[in-house]
Every structure is written in C-alpha cells, then in structure tokens.
Design brief:
By secondary structure, the protein is α+β, with helices and mostly antiparallel strands. It contains five helices and 21 strands. The strands form six sheets. Strands 3-7-5-6-4 form a five-stranded antiparallel beta sheet. Strands 8, 9, 10, 11 and 14 form a five-stranded antiparallel beta sheet that branches. Strand 15 and strand 16 form a beta hairpin.
C-alpha cells in the first residue's frame, strides 16, 4: 500500500494479543527469504484528535489560529481536549491551537485562520460541551465504558475486550477515569454490574494509580465468566465540587445536606473519616459554624458519597473547644481509605443559630444602648443643674432687691 521497501524482513507472521508494549514482544515466526517485496505489512494509526474532529464540529483540523501570536505556548500536552481545558482555565484565552507532532498547546485571543498540517484548533468551549466524542472502542489500547446509563459509567473495555474483575480495585479504576478525562473515580463495580460482558477472554490489570493510561499498567490475558467484568463510575467534570473557599486552612464546610446546618463534614477541602466520629466532635463542628449545638453525628456518608481522598487527620474533641482545630488530633489510621461510604457528617440545631444571632445582636446593642442612655442622662442632669443655678441666682437677686426696698421704705418712714 505504501510502496515497495526493503525485502530483508526480520518478522514474519507476528501474532499479538493487543496488550504488548512493543511489536518485538509479540509471538513471531522465523523470517523467510521467500517473502516477496510486495508483501510488506503496513499500518495506518488511529489518531484520537482527528477522530474527534470528524465527530465534533467544535474542532477544525489542519487549521491554526493567530499563528505566531499566542498568549502562551505549553509543551507536552497529550491531546487537543487537554489543550481546550487549559484554555478554559485561562481568562485571556478565547481559542486554542494544538500541534500534534510537537504536542504544543497555544492559547490564543483571536481566530485568524491559517492552513497548517498536523494541527487542531477550536474555541474555548464547544456549543454542546456535554456531548462526548465517539471513541473507536475496538481499536487497540482504546479504553471505553460501555453498557452504562451515562458516558461516565459502565463496564470497562480496552480495545474491544472486557476487563476482568480479578485484581480490579480503585487504583485501576482511577487510571481509567483520568485517562478518559474525568476528575477521579467515584465508584468501582465487579460482577459485570452493567450487564453481561463479551467474554471469555478478558484483560487483567494491576496499576499503582499514578499511571496516565492503562497501557502503562502490568496486564495479562485470561479466560473468565461473562459475569466477571469490571466496571466503574467516574467523577464527572460537570458534577458540583466543593467551593474553593472550603480548601482554606482550618476551614470547615458541610456539603450535601438540605441546608447549611447539615451535611458531610469537610476539613480543609477533604472529607473526614467516620471512624471514631461522635457527638462531641459533631458539637464542636456545629459551634465552630455558629450554631449552639449538634442534633446528630452522622456516619456512613449519610449526605452522599464522598471523594476517596480523605483528610489525613482524626479528631478527638471533648466538647468544650472553641473550634475543631483546637481538638486533639492525630494522623488518620486509614480505616476509611478508598471507601466513599465512610464520610462523617452532622446535623446542627438550625433554630439555635437564629437564637445565637439574636443573642449576639443583643450583646452588641445592649451595651451601646446603655452608653447612649447614660450620655443622654448626664446631658439632661447637666442642663437641669444649669437651669437650677440660674434660678438660684435669680432668687438671690430678688431677695437683695426686696431687702433693699424694705430698708429704704423704713428710712423714709422714720
């Protein structure tokens, strides 16, 4: 297909299972000199970015925007999707151009188009950002979630082959979710949770959780039952996340409840493990947030699943501390590790906050009113004393005048 090349073949009849990292890792037969020059094998590789272009009108292929006038050029970016996400995080970026060969992402303000091979360009956000690009699920190494009710969940397939539940854990699932562009894993499943898988040959993976792709994890092929497929639900990028303010030092937030008086407890942006969680701890959380008391200490992620990244602090409060940070704390024992159902929570006395606010207002207003009343009283007393002084002086003058007139009349009579 691509022309006649060197007839000195080194591999003949290679047979691979799709999980090998190199062609040399596949099984092969010894080369034979009888293979003619027109029998060379070739391949056309699948490029995810161009596939996205065909299925998503948001992107343009072989087109660069504002060539040579970028606000920033960022190296070693894996895909056009990742480049678009960087643009979304930049306030001065309106468009992006991604160079496939150099893996360079250019963040741009304008959209002056120039023809440029091996580039992908697009706007800051697509008109329909919730639409997921179609993936070539039967292509080697391509990860897909199938049979789920939404794009962020399903049984896991790689290259069209299901992944086995054997050794399936949160580390493996985390690699899958992040490879697909999600924040993190939210739930892992076994026993072909989303429906019977297409066995019996499946792939078994073992990941550390830090890999960027399943292909970087160790793997092997095995034969398993159709009901032994691995599944996952990923943490969707569009899901509500904690406000950034909740990540501040010593900041307490309640999340997932019907109001600000209840929810799973987050300390510095991370959920607290419910191991050892009690009413004293809950009371201090409530008083720290301005409530008078706690109605209930909850366990088992009562207000919804929490992330796997738990706080590394365990608290032990007596109930009389001013703030949660003043409680005795120790390094978390890790009993809640990777269990999203172990978040600690509280229900605070909602009415008590209104009373607390009223008491606070009274405490502020009462001294102020006392001072104002005192000042008014003193002013009144001063004015009254001044008036009395004038009256006293007038009385004295009147007495002098009467006395003088009396003496004068007496002398005239004599």
């Amino acid at each position: 297909m691509f022309g006649t090349g060197n007839t000195n073949y080194i591999i003949r009849d290679a047979y691979c299972n799709g999980t090998e990292k190199r062609l040399l890792d596949c099984g092969q037969k010894a080369p034979k000199k009888t293979c003619p020059g027109g029998r060379a094998a070739g391949v056309q590789c699948y490029t995810m970015d161009y596939f996205n272009i065909l299925n998503n009108s948001c992107y343009e292929g072989d087109v660069a925007y504002n060539l040579g006038k970028s606000n920033a050029d960022i190296q070693n970016i894996d895909s056009a999707n990742a480049c678009q996400k960087l643009c979304q995080d930049c306030t001065t970026c309106n468009y992006f151009t991604y160079q496939l060969t150099s893996k360079t992402c250019s963040l741009l303000s304008g959209k002056k188009e120039t023809v440029a091979r091996d580039t992908v360009s697009g706007p800051k956000s697509c008109k329909n950002p919730s639409a997921s690009p179609v993936r070539a699920c039967n292509s080697a190494g391509v990860v897909c979630l199938l049979q789920g009710g939404s794009p962020d969940e399903g049984n896991v397939y790689v290259g069209g082959r299901p992944v086995s539940q054997v050794t399936w854990d949160v580390q493996n699932a985390r690699v899958v979710c992040r490879e697909l562009g999600y924040v993190d894993v939210l739930e892992i499943y076994r026993s072909s949770h989303f429906g019977k898988v297409a066995g019996p040959e499946m792939i078994k993976y073992s990941c550390y959780g830090t890999e960027t792709s399943l292909t970087h994890c160790s793997s092997s092929i095995g034969r398993y039952s159709d009901y032994e497929g691995a599944g996952v639900k990923c943490h969707n990028n569009t899901a509500a996340l904690l406000p950034q303010a909740c990540h501040a030092p010593n900041k307490i937030c309640l999340w997932g409840g019907a109001g600000d008086h209840e929810g799973n407890v987050y300390f510095q942006g991370k959920p607290i493990c419910d191991d050892g969680w009690n009413s004293a701890n809950a009371h201090i959380v409530c008083t720290s947030l301005g409530f008078q008391e706690a109605l209930q200490a909850t366990t088992g992620s009562e207000f919804g699943m929490v992330p796997y990244d738990f706080s590394d602090i365990d608290f032990d409060c007596h109930g009389d501390e001013e703030h949660l940070k003043n409680c005795i704390f120790s390094e978390a024992k890790g009993k809640c590790k990777y269990d999203k159902h172990r978040g600690a929570g509280v229900r605070c006395n909602y009415a008590s906050k209104s009373i607390s606010v009223l008491l606070t207002v009274i405490n502020i207003v009462a001294p102020t009113m006392f001072i104002i009343t005192l000042v008014i009283g003193l002013v009144y007393i001063c004015k009254t004393q001044k008036k009395l002084s004038h009256i006293t002086n007038d009385t004295k003058e009147l007495r002098r005048a009467v006395s003088k007139q009396y003496h004068k009349s007496s002398s005239d009579y004599i």
